[in-house]
Amino acid sequence: MLDNVSHFIRGYSLCATSKPRNRKPGLYTPLLVPSHPWESISMDFVGGLPLSRKGHDYLYIVIDMFNKMWILTPCKKEITVEQQLIFSSKTFWFILVFLFLL
Description:
102 residues, alpha+beta, 35% helix
């Protein structure tokens, strides 16, 4: 049975190509460099912070990958989808106004 398994694995092309020694080390695809502000953004939540006076313990962060500008919005750990959409829409309008003023 061991011979059958090893013969199958040697003949299976996916196993042969996915081994680390058969691939070049590094990133699979390089990240594209944005050419304009707010063309590429990253969004994330950062938590475990001490409570603020308004009871916020998390931050909703939006980062522009072109010029590394960021927007921080305080929020709570228990956030609903509706609240996340409100954060996203506020951020979207902020970005539109910022681009209009440029």
